Amino acid sequence: MSFSSEAKAELCRVNRRKKCCAVAECYGALLYCNSFTPREIRVMTGSADFAALLPRLFRRAFGVGFDRVPEPGAAGTRLTLLMTDREKIAQVFRAFGMEPDDTLSLHINLGVLENDCCKASFVRGAFLAGGSITDPAKRYHLELATNHAAVSREMSALLGELGFEPGQARRGASHLNYFKQSEAIADFLTTAGADVAALEIMSARVEKDMRNEINRKVNCDTANADKTVAAAQEQLSAIRALE
Question: Could you give the count of Cα atoms lying within 13 Å of 70 in the half-sphere of its Cβ?
């Protein structure tokens, strides 16, 4: 299992006490999923834990279920949850203060995210649906990818309210918010609820710092030894010349 999958599995085990936070988490997932339109809601994921969690979240948040979900125990990179019933979709839209037929482009309605706990839940949902993180043993990179430019801009502002300074970029049709600093990534994971993954990030950083320090000392000692040998050779040459 990849580090990203482990982090998402940990997030799926977070205790969700409040209905408002369930609504906020679903909101984040929907704005970062494959399709959130008046015609269909389609979530595709490689996380079996997230695929099992999302139907329960939808029931609690909206009182509706998906029209199609993966088979129990299913695994793979393209697990699909689908909703096409127009009335169900309308109910979901209205929970966020939107009417399906009047919504031309998606935005983040901050009225749904008044509390800090809801903001954290929203960020968690966005990461579960559209986020990824590299193995910290290799490099530091966490990103959130959405097809909606306005959502990406507004997510950047929301993360700013939480004390973060994400970078922004575009990759094809995807709009990205990203982090490349280990401290920011660890803080993001802690905010979302993945404390163990955050600790692994910091442990990887400490290990890298120690390895780099050892390498610097070895290189320094090697350079000093080379200088000593070179100086000794010069002295020997001078002695032989005198002899």
Answer: 22
* Token couple for 8: 């998402």
Phi-psi region of 132 (alpha: psi -120 to 50; beta: other; left: phi over 0): beta
What are 49's two structure tokens? 């834990």
In this structure, which amino acid lies at residue 90? A
Distance CA 187, CA 192 (A): 9
Q: The whole model's pTM is what?
A: 0.83
Mean of the pLDDT values across residues 172-201?
A: 95
Give the mean model confidence (pLDDT) for residues 203-211. 78
Average of per-residue pLDDT across 110-129: 94
Alpha-carbon distances, residue 23 vs 54, 60, 94, 115, 164 (angstroms):
11, 8, 11, 12, 23
User: Between vectors from CA 95 to CA 93 and to CA 101, what angle results, nearest 5°?
Assistant: 25
Model pLDDT, residue 11: 96
**CA–CA separation, 36 and 207 (whole Å):** 42
What DSSP letter does each residue of the chain carry, written as one string? --HHHHHHHHHHTS----HHHHHHHHHHHHHTSSEESSS-EEEEES-HHHHHHHHHHHHHHHS---SB-PPTT--SS-EEEEE--HHHHHHHHHHTT--GGG-SS----GGGG-SHHHHHHHHHHHHHHHEEE--TTT---EEEEES-HHHHHHHHHHHHHTT---EEEEETTEEEEEE--HHHHHHHHHHHT-HHHHHHHHHHHHHHHHHHHHHHHHHHHHHHHHHHHHHHHHHHHHHHHH-
